[in-house]
Write a structure and sequence with these properties.
Specifically dimethylates two adjacent adenosines (A1518 and A1519) in the loop of a conserved hairpin near the 3'-end of 16S rRNA in the 30S particle. May play a critical role in biogenesis of 30S subunits. By secondary structure, the protein is α/β, with parallel strands linked by helices. The chain has helices at about 10-20, 35-45, 65, 85-95, 110-115, 130-140, 155-160, 170-180, 220-230, 240-245, 250-260, 270-284, and strands at about 30, 50-55, 75-80, 95-100, 120-125, 150-155, 180-190, 195, 200-210. It has 2 domains: about 10-210, 3-Layer(aba) Sandwich (Rossmann fold), CATH 3.40.50.150; about 215-284, Helicase, Ruva Protein, domain 3 (Orthogonal Bundle).
């Protein structure tokens, strides 16, 4: 099983001391110190030695040093400039590792491709919790070459990612991400696996992109618009919420009649397929 030399308290403390670093909660930094979790992340990623892997928020490189053992190339995006010397040392020691300094949501795609030597195929990361949900959806939107994501997130975000209709976790985010792929794996990670221990529970989620897209590229914006309007006023009926957010009541009534969706239903009761059908009719 693949492990990391940094995934223990002693090694993590020694490296932080060597480089004069302290954890920064404002950047969501909690360092993973459990190799069992590293092993399970790598198992979920199913790397074969040929993949280009994108990592966001490598920190001191704990997960990175496991990924470079199994991937063709790993490129990490890190926002904290104080961590660059650590990453530079890893890059000097591993020819198949490179890094980009900057905000993952703002780094130009061309820089990522250049760092990886090609388009990213997998996203494997212990994500910064404060922007994790945004990063996942943004990368699936912007990077069609990513076919799988294995990501550590706050438990509540994991619940939203894998939510099903008629639950409080199910919302616009769930549906928009489900247009790209489906959750195929998940496991919980307790606070004791980190240093310092966070005050939240964590989970690793695996998301696999569909082999055949649920909707064509040209339809994505329309489906997303329908989803956002439907969930904009969650406690209202779908008809009232959508009519207050850009859709005419007459066109909505015609669409509900054509799809068999009840206008008095609430958004959280609709499936992903329901939203796609509704968007298709409203686009005509």
């Amino acid at each position: 099983m693949t492990t990391s030399p940094l995934a223990n308290l002693t090694a993590t403390r020694a490296l932080l001391e060597e480089f004069g670093l302290a954890t920064k909660h404002r950047l969501g930094q909690n360092f993973l110190v459990d190799n069992h979790v590293i092993e399970r992340i790598c198992a979920q990623a199913e790397l074969t030695g040929t993949e280009r892997v994108l990592e966001v928020g490598p920190g001191i490189g704990t997960l990175t040093l496991a990924l470079v053992q199994e991937a063709a190339h790993v490129a990490s995006i890190e926002m904290d400039a104080e961590l660059e010397p650590v990453l530079a040392e890893h890059a000097a020691e591993h020819a198949n590792f490179s890094y980009v300094m900057g905000d993952a949501l703002k780094v130009p795609y061309e820089r990522i491709v250049e760092a990886l030597g090609g388009e990213p195929e997998l996203l494997v990361a212990n994500l910064p919790y404060n922007v994790a949900a945004t990063i996942i959806l943004s990368f699936f939107d912007r990077m069609p070459s990513i076919r799988r994501a294995v990501v550590m997130v706050q438990k509540e975000v994991a619940d939203r990612i894998g939510a099903v209709p008629s639950t409080k976790e199910y919302g616009a985010y769930t549906v928009k991400l489900a247009l790209h792929g489906q959750v195929t794996g998940r496991f919980e990670v307790p606070p004791r696996c980190f240093m310092p221990a966070p005050h939240v529970d964590s989970a690793v989620v695996r998301i696999d992109r569909y082999d055949e897209p649920l909707v064509a590229d040209a339809q994505f914006a329309q489906v997303a618009r329908v989803v956002e309007a439907a969930f904009a006023q969650r406690r209202k009926t779908i008809r009232n919420s959508m009519s207050a957010n850009g859709f005419g009541k007459d066109e909505l009534d015609a669409a509900f009649a054509a799809t068999g969706i009840a206008p008095a239903a609430r958004a959280e009761t609709l499936s992903v397929e329901d939203f796609i059908r509704l968007a298709e009719v409203l686009a005509d």
